[in-house]
Amino acid sequence: MKFQLLPSSFEEDGSPSPRQHLACLVVDDLVAIDAGSLAMAATDEIRRQLRDIVLTHAHLDHIAGLPLYVDDLFASLDKPITVHALPDVINVLERDVFNWSVFPRFSELNTPAGPAIRYNAVEFGDQFIISSLSFRLFRGDHKVPSAGVVVTDGQSTVAVTGDTASLAGLQDEVASVESLQAILVECAFPNELTDIARNSHHMTPAILAEELSKLESVCPVFVINIKPRYRELVVAELTALKIGNLNVMSVGKPYFW
Ligand SMILES: [Zn+2]
After folding, report:
1. 3-state class of 181 per DSSP?
2. Which pLDDT belongs to residue 216?
3. How many angstroms separate the alpha carbon of residue 76 from the centre of ligand 1?
4. How far is the CA of 48 from the centre of ligand 1 (A)?
5. Which of 19, 58, 72, 99 is the most buried (most CB within 10 A)?
6. Separation of first and last alpha carbons in the chain
């Protein structure tokens, strides 16, 4: 499987900035896990074929690109864009985003191929198939209902946390998956902002190290979704942990698992 963290901003020379204001991970150019920067950074190949979006939760940095992506493709859609998410997340989208006031209610706007958006409400533990990929949501630990995602193509399996304060939900998944190729995990704040991290249900390098020590897994772990302002500090603190299988995922670079 190909995984790519889409950039959300760009350097002066046009290259992708490692600073992540928005969260969007694309699998096989076909499925997005979160849609923070989907509209802003999707390649033509992604725009041509990506019609399924799995949302971990409804915070703005994870959904900002969703309305704009649907708006961009609306006139040319050959099938609806399907949003796979917890029922609570779908309710927030319909109530607070696609409510005509903030943006059109695309689930009621028909293209020749049907509504522009349709929803697949999934609960924790439900398996759902998109093309040749199989997905399952596991419980996150955030301020709002939030999920992590396990995705497999039958050969490789990768787990992705959404925003979360702990890896308790992931622990059960690691126990049930035979071979995990990679874990992608959030680490939003530096250690000096532990109070803010705890209050907003995010992790710091110290919290992450403690959580990883409880996992019975030695597969590579890649950190994603570092708050842009603190990126250098968080990366330095992660490096200082000297955990052999712990890496920081590069923004924009494709990874193959
Ligand atoms: Zn969040």
Report:
1. coil
2. 76
3. 31
4. 28
5. 58
6. 5
Domain residue limits at 156: 2-256
CA of 235 to the centre of ligand 1 (A): 20
CA of 79 to the centre of ligand 1 (A): 29
Rounded to the nearest whole angstrom, what is the distance from the C-alpha of residue 198 to the centroid of ligand 1?
A: 13
| C-alpha 59 to ligand 1 mean position (Å) | 5
23 alpha carbon to ligand 1 midpoint, in Å? 10
Residue 145 CA to ligand 1 center (angstroms) comes to: 9
What are 194-241's pLDDT values in tens digits?
999 999 999 999 999 999 999 877 799 999 999 999 999 999 999 999
| pLDDT for 112 | 87
pTM: 0.96
**Once rounded to an integer, what is the mean pLDDT over residues 118-141?**
96
Decide: helix, strand or coil at residue 63: helix
DSSP secondary structure letters along 116-127: SEEEEE--TT-E
What's the whole-number mean pLDDT along residues 145-168?
A: 95
Cα 109 to averaged position of ligand 1 atoms, centre (Å): 28
Please give the pLDDT value at position 156: 94
CA of 93 to the centre of ligand 1 (A): 14
Read off the CATH number of the domain in which 220 is found. 3.60.15.10
Quote the pLDDT of residue 174: 79
Q: How many domains does the chain have?
A: 1
CA angle 168, 170, 29 (to 5 degrees): 150
